[in-house]
Amino acid sequence: MQQRKDWIDIIVDKVHENYNGRQVVIWGFFETSCTISGKLKERYGISTAFYVDGNAAKTDNVQVFHPDCLDGKSDTCYVVIPLTFYQSIKEKISEYGYKEDIDYYYFCGCILRQEPDYFEDAHGNKIIGNYKGLKFAFFGFHSTIELGDNIQFQNTCLYFFSDDSRIKIGSNVELKENVIHIYNSSNMIVGSSTELKENTIYIHNHSEALIGDGTKLKGNLFNIKNSAKTLLEESVHFENVQMVIRDNARLETKDGSLIKGLHISVYEHGEALLGQNTEVTGDVWEIRENARLHIGNGGKFIYSIGGKSSIHIAENAGMIIGNNFHILENYRFVVASGTKILIGNDCVMSYNITMYSSDLHSIFDVVTGENINSNDEIKKERKIVIGNHVWLGVHVTVLYNTQIGDGSVIGAMSLVKSKIPNNCIAAGSPARVVRRDIAWSMNDGAADISDCGEEYVNLTEESRKE
Predict the structure, then answer these.
(1) 3-state secondary structure (DSSP) of residue 149
(2) Contact criterion met (CB below 8 Å) for 222 and 207
(3) β-pairing, 126-128 with 279-281?
């Protein structure tokens, strides 16, 4: 099957067909117009005579002139307009005495039908629903915008640099100060009663962004790249988030989540899944190629001004966190390539928690020349496993080959690199068990041991054997 031509290629070919030896003038002086000029020269040897632009700051009367210089010169000038559609431009070029296609080509100006609740152009692009207040441009073919009822557009721009793409927006949605770029064969679905404010969203080739009902997006930069998928379910609140989701990667955030100030990058074939009612504030997360980050429901990653928290998951590594996870600021989790960090349900971690699943540097035996700490076989065995209902005190460091049993407590300033049994207190550097047969509660001053949770009130495993 013959590949459909790029919109810039179509413009270049149209100029070649219709300019008839006249001077070629491009309306609008910006990066794309310069690209068109370069392709005209490269493909057909046609030089651009000059540019015109209504923005006085761009005109220098040497290379860029005011559009009025075109008035009455259709016999000597052929005009290319690679801009989004403006009725004022179409009216102005007509006043100057230019006829469409014969004297000028306006890629986005080929409108077949334009009504308050329907738009269609000659390239097969459509808007279904009331689009009043929406600024849009179709620089491709056969894309569709479907709009529900009572949508408010304020300074929102949709740019389709694509073919066969789709945006579907539900009812009672507010879009304010947004710029959304859609690339080839991509989809974006926004549910009902959603608010999008001051966002820049790039959805690249064959990608999908699904935003559920009641979601709020404010001050975000989203960059969703080739064949990636982003799913934000109902009542999710994103504020001042920078997000890059790369080729074939996936980000999924479940209902009721609150994400503020997060910088998250998910690389090729990576995956970040955040459960219901997850709260993340002011952190930097990086999920590299083929890596996995799964966070259960009710996770809370607390931030304070000046805090520096981060998660780095290297290639082919994984981090899985259970439900109701709480951690305070200045944490640092580093999951080295091929390794894992596994954290159970109902865990609580204090300030300045650090975890490393590997040495992050290589050590060799000088006699044999062998890598003794980080070859592939060794990495397969490297992991950190933390059970359910574990409490880590302030400034705890956890290294690889650590296992901490259910219901245990690690004291402040401890370094853990060993197996710690269930229902005990361990402390020190390296951490050692200092008390067995304990249970702990989230509530300070609790009067009843049942407050610890019945499933976590147990004897330490070693005590059972005695």
Answers:
(1) coil
(2) no
(3) unpaired
What is the pLDDT at residue 374?
87
> What's the whole-model pTM score?
0.84
- Alpha-carbon distance of 339 to 86, in angstroms, equals 55
Question: HSE (CB half, 13 Å, CA atoms) of 146?
Answer: 12
Q: Is the pLDDT of residue 22 over 90?
A: yes
Residues in the chain: 466
What end-to-end distance do the CA atoms of the chain give, in Å? 76
pLDDT digits (tens, 9 = 90+) for 85-140: 888 999 999 999 999 999 999 999 999 999 999 999 999 999 999 999 998 999 98
Single-letter amino acid, residue 353: I
**Per-state percent for the chain, helix, strand, coil, to nearest 5:** 15, 40, 50
Name the packing angle between helices 31-44 and 7-18 (round to 10°).
60
Q: What is the DSSP string of 380-428?
A: HH-EEEE-SS-EE-TT-EEETTEEE-TT-EE-TT-EE-SEE-SSEEEET
| Residue whose structure tokens are 């109701």 | 324
Residue 305: is its pLDDT beyond 80? no
pLDDT at 466: 47
Q: Is the dihedral of CA 20, 24, 27, 32 positive or negative?
A: positive
- Please report, for residues 42, 208, 361, the alpha-carbon distance to residue 185 in angstroms, rounded to integers and kept in the order given: 28, 9, 42
| C-alpha 13: how far from chain center | 36
Given a contact cutoff of 8 angstroms between Cβ atoms, the answer to whether 274 and 252 are in contact is: yes
How far lies 196's CA from each of 35, 134, 305, in Å? 32, 13, 25
Instruction: Give the β-pairing of 432-436 and 424-427.
Output: antiparallel
The DSSP bridge partners found for residue 342 are 320, 385
Helix (H) or strand (E) holding 377: helix 376-381
The two structure tokens encoding residue 37: 């000029």
The b-or-e profile of 123-143 (16+ CB within 10 A means b, else e) is bebbbebbbeebebbbbbbbb
Helix (H) or strand (E) holding 464: helix 461-465
The structure tokens listed for 176 are 């304010």
Give the residue carrying structure tokens 């067995």.
436
d(CA 285, CA 263): 6
